[in-house]
Structure formats: C-alpha cells, structure tokens
Amino acid sequence: MPADPRAVLTRPAPAPDHTVAYGEHPDQLADLRRPAGGGPARPLVVVVHGGFWRAEYDRSHTGPLAAALAAQGHPVAQLEYRRTGQPGGGWPGTLSDVAAGVAALPRLAADAMPGLVGAGAPILVGHSAGGHLALYAAATVPAAVGGVLALAPVSDLAEAYRLDLDGGAVAALLGGGPAEFPDRYAAADPRSAVPLQTRTVVVHGTLDEQVPVAMSRSFVAASRAARGDIRLVELPECEHFGLIDPESSAWPEITTAFRSLREDH
Questions:
Q1: What average pLDDT does range 153-176 have in this prediction?
Q2: Which portions of the sequence form the region Disordered (predicted)?
Q3: Among residues 90, 117, 147, 202, which one has the fewest Cβ atoms lying within 10 Å of its Cβ?
C-alpha cells in the first residue's frame, strides 16, 4: 500500500481516448478508454466516481482505475454527473444524471469505439458515493445494469445521515434528513431497494475511516436475507482509497471480484 493512500486521487493517468455527452449540461458526459489487446468485444464498464457527491471531486481521480481496467481488455467509461454545490446537483439531478448516463453510455461508447463494445448491459464499478450511485442505478434502471462492483459504497443513506459522514454530505445531497424528506430517502437509498435484481459484489476494507465496513455488512446481510444475488468481500488491512488504486495491495482482490461479475455476465 502506498505511504499516502490518498495519492491515487491526484496520480496522473493516460488521457482518455474519447469524451461523449449524454446530456446538455457540461458535466453530463463521460470519458471513454479503448480496451487494450485484440480480444473479443466486451460489454462496457462504467466507472462511477465518489467524493461524497461534492463538486470538488470529479471523475479525474478514477483515471488510474479506469486505465487499469482498459489495460485488461475492457472498454471503459468514466461517468461524470452534476454534484452538490453545482447548479442542478443534489436532489434530484445527481441521481437522474447517473441513471440517464448508465442507460445512454453503451450506445454512445459503441458509436465512438466501433467493434470494441460488446452487446449486453454494462457492469458498474462505483466507489464510495459512486458505489451508492451504482446501487441506485441498479435499483432504478435494472435492465440497463449487468452487474455492480460496489467498492466501500454508501449503501444506507439514513445511517450515513445519522453518522454525519463527511460532515453533512447526505443532507447536502437530499436536502435534509429522513424525517424531513422521507420520500427522497425512500427513492434514493439502496437499503430501501433490497433486494436488488442485479448481481452485486461489495468490497470493503476493514480499516475504512470514511465509510464504515459495518454499513456494508448490514446491507449485504439484509440483501441476502431477502434472497438477493450479492456477496461481501472484506479486505483486512485495507482502508478507503486502496480499493481504487491499481498500485495497492488490494488491487488483486478487486480484479478477482470484477472478474467474477464479468464471467457470469
């Protein structure tokens, strides 16, 4: 593991091959990366970045992750969306952007990279708040999602509000707490959508200080009790940011979890 796990957030990555827009707002777009090698076309992988839905965090910090997946032979899209602190971000724009982007990107990527994007719904790889958004998309547009790899996801918004994760991040996303906006929480919270129809693997480090591993344990247990197709991979000695870092000791576990989704896709 790097001395500073956050180093991945600013580590340079190769420039994307294409950028496509799925809407008219400047942040309704995605960066595309062509798959390495000459293998068969594969379904698109959509990377949904985290940052607690805040404007100061954008898709650029998932560049190393996306480049590593493309190097393994996958067409990859790094999805951007409106975030809190921006016009149109928060409720409902952040969530509707992700649902719209996930639905539109397979066609947009196939047009931009002819012959490289296979048929089938994309696999979503979401980290932290991006894990929440990936789970939300699977609950909202299940036919558009072929599988979810949720890395340290914020999988219970009501609990995240109670814990005050990242100093009011959930309140900023939804406008307040569950007592004030129960309908918003019911619509946006993956815990309310258990069990998801989409095959899901959750990976969480036991040393995570940003999103507690107990949240994933509870979410997966509730999903399995409701007969959801989901499993949890806990990584001892791993914190929050190693999950998106191809240079971390956690990376082989991430690729194994991803491969299990891809092979059953």
A1: 98
A2: 1-21
A3: 90
